[in-house]
Structure of DUF5995 family protein:
Amino acid sequence: MPRCEQVPPAVDTPVDGVISRMRALDATLHPRDGVAVFNRVYLAVTEVVDRYVDTGRFADTHAAITLDVRFAQRYLEAVEAVVEERRPPACWRPLFQFRRHPGVRPLQFALAGINAHIGHDLALAVVDTCRTLGCAPADLEDEFDAVGDLLVSLEERIREDLMPGPDLLQIADPLTHLLGAWSLERARDATWTAARALWALRGLPDVAEEFTDRLDTAVGFAGRMLLTPLPEPRLGSR
């Protein structure tokens, strides 16, 4: 199957612009703001993607850049919507609603943002990229997998960095139960299926719109569950 057209990246790629916007956003947010927690995680991921681009780690550099930028734009547009007092997509609303809740822990904010971005935005970004480059989702599978593998590899580090204590397997800690019900790998697999379905439905705009709305709502519901306020860990659970 033909690949998307190869175009050599510029010295300053659009990914650099995305990184600049995320850094600027980080400078405006309180460190404990739930959006700031996710933004720091996503910034770290995007910086790694940028290094991959610079070192030629992607099979199709231009496709990888386009996918990464289309992907990031959906998150940044959600932030802009809130700043401008517009409603963001349903998948992002729980994070913005609970961003300052004292009963929500940093790890919950990080994973709720990842859930919104992977579960909803990535599927739409794949379709956006296919339309931009004139290719099909199958042509982007290598780039999709590379970005997904990067996210999965960072998830364990994120959990270790943000878990409230060294004992990650405290059975009595409600955070362990809550986060054990969500898997980035499963979310990524579901996203690839959703992207392929949306591409197949591109000739049926009404059906595609309904599918997108339902996906948005479902991902938002999962995000709301991830952000369930929790009591502070009992003495001995740290």
